[in-house]
Amino acid sequence: QVQLVESGGGLVQAGGSLRLSCAASGRTFTDLAMGWFRRATGKEREFVATVLWNDTFAYYATSVKGRFTISRDNAKNTAFLQMNGLKPEDTAVYYCVTGTPTLIHEPTAYDYWGQGTQVTVSS
Q: Most buried among 36, 80, 99, 114, using CB within 10 Å?
């Protein structure tokens, strides 16, 4: 079993920044892609970003491209999501995910999910 623990969520004003962290354990970290999804109230899960094992190939949803940066530190078995220029529409529970996805934007393509961390952006 892979364990994922998110941290770093909170309340921030529009235009502010947050950095989410995801600590992974239970399986070889470098063999897996890591990413982030989010779910806003009343909406379905939405792809945010994914980074592959070597931190070279990253993929972003159009809605966050240019504002969010995903990265990973394999030595610490940790992934990060740096969120800048936050908007009220970014308000959601953010979930760390990992696995070997065949379609990076599909929630069901990932094998493991964390419990989520709340991000609230006020206007």
A: 36
Are 107 and 95 in contact by the 8 Å Cβ rule? The answer is: no
Do 121 and 10 contact (CB within 8 A), yes or no? no
Cβ contacts of residue 111 below 8 Å, gap of 6+? Answer: 2, 98, 99, 100
- Residues for the chain: how many in total? 123
Q: 3-class secondary structure for 3-46?
A: EEEEECCEEEECCCCEEEEEEEECCCHHHCEEEEEEECCCCCCE
In tens, the pLDDT along 76-98 reads 889 999 999 999 999 999 999 99
Counting as low any pLDDT under 70, the low residues of the chain are 27-30, 54-55
Instruction: Give SS3 for 97.
Output: strand
Asked if residues 83 and 32 have their Cβ atoms less than 8 Å apart, the reply is: no
Task: Write out the two tokens for 15.
Answer: 């235009």
How far apart CA 96 and CA 91 sit, in angstroms, is: 16
